[in-house]
């Protein structure tokens, strides 16, 4: 009896990473593939990218060994090489999933990929799962996606996630085309994200400051610095700020766009940060937990959920407004004052202008009313 192996790692090459699992109640840590008589040594990697690739490979090999009734107390395993053309459908999905899970993507994105991988494999018959990936039925993706046609948004999300796997299989020349993209698209209904009015914003922040200071600080930074609450603000450390606390610098591993991101800190945010940051001596300390470890991924979501009923009852919040509405409101404020998409893109940390356009369209900021003055002119 064994638990699902998982990767334990950090973004620091100086720290050893390993695969962890339990077998018959005993916990094991595997730093290399010596037990499997394979040469896989992720901790000897010279770069983080290479280390993550080797960790994914190490995870795949131990998972495969355990699935084949291997006992970790044995010193070696008789391994028959599996050539690329002989990889089964199940192995191909699990191997790529392990690679993605060890990469620096958001937790939400990883969950999406893991979910669609498990659902697709459960959908296939046992015979289809053990057949080689090159013999994957071209219509299997469409048959799988048809289960979700009742909800167009869910259908398109599954189609997109499954397409990530198929694109990798095309790249490796396992299959000729992306079978997920061959499935028809469904039209989804756009959701209008709600922003705050200036009066509402001031009243809400004042209330949070008096009742939940950490949540207040998160929302204030989200609005003033346009950072993402769960993926960027939650991980902020003292070392991310410059000496006079007027600037925040994040590496590519610390923000969603995977690029170096530098944002200014407005004075109204800075004055609330100074008192807190000057008390922190360790540059690696998180500005919320005040330790080297950040709060868990649900911390701000849970705090917001707990505060929400009272905010609604007091008329400070509308039903369709969320913790992300602070960032939405900031984006609208910048765009309204500048009418410059490039500035909005830079401040939001979007990877492309297309992302910025979709974002503003979702906020109702790019609409027909604002385009009336630039429609083609003709004198008749």
UniProtKB/TrEMBL annotation:
Keyword ATP-binding assigned: no
GO biological process: DNA integration; DNA recombination
Name of the featured protein: Tyrosine-type recombinase/integrase
Organism: Mucilaginibacter rubeus
Coiled coil spans: none
Keyword list, A-Z: DNA recombination
MF term (GO), any: DNA binding
InterPro entries for the chain: DNA_brk_join_enz, Integrase-like_cat_sf, Integrase_catalytic
Record carries keyword Cell inner membrane: no
Domain spans labelled Tyr recombinase: 191-376
